[in-house]
Amino acid sequence: MLVIENCRLTWPDFTADYSLTVNKGALCAVIGPSGGGKTTLLHMIAGFEKPESGTLTFEGTNLLPLEPAKRPVAIVFQDHNLFPHLTAAQNVALGLRPSLRLSDNERLLTEEMLDAVGLKGLDARKPGEMSGGQRQRVALARALVSGRPLILLDEPFSSLDPGLRRDMVQLVGELRRKRPVTILMTIHTPEDVADLADQMAFVADGRVVASDSPSTILGGSLAARIAAAVSNT
Length: 233
Known about the structure:
This protein has about 230 residues and is α/β, with parallel strands linked by helices. The chain is built from seven helices and ten strands. About 30% of the residues lie in helices and about 25% in strands.
């Protein structure tokens, strides 16, 4: 279980104070207006931002003293963050071993993960030779192959067309059912994930305003505010 309690961060023009609980193995969709603090929330969990106060634990372990590389977290950014000079297989393998000196078992695992995200046979392609959707699949495969139990997806599919975006969201749903991972995914199109997520959190003004099932969040008192936030994203 991921437990965030009163984690406060301040800047001259913005203050955030997060409290959120996500069950182990759940897919939590994080929605809200641009600039409301969704990405900051994920960056705090990953260790890129450090709160001044509060607690942050995952499976009972205090994450706050841990540097980003030591946390049980893998993150996928909107721009996928792939290395253009490396092949798809090499980019995925970085999730296993940054030196890329793989054992036979690790090479096999890399191939299996590329297959799992629908990229079988494309292991030798470089990012510039792949479509946007394929690049995002490589980034997703790299996060999953790392074996880290907490996956953070920061608007990973926002640049894709609606059909492909929906396909990628469904792929996330399928993969997390096969592997024991907890996923937080920021997304500006809540309708794409409403029937797949276990939980939805509405983040605005640096706070988790509400967290519940997608149907409760989207059909409740926040519906008009969510619609306005989505239309302005």
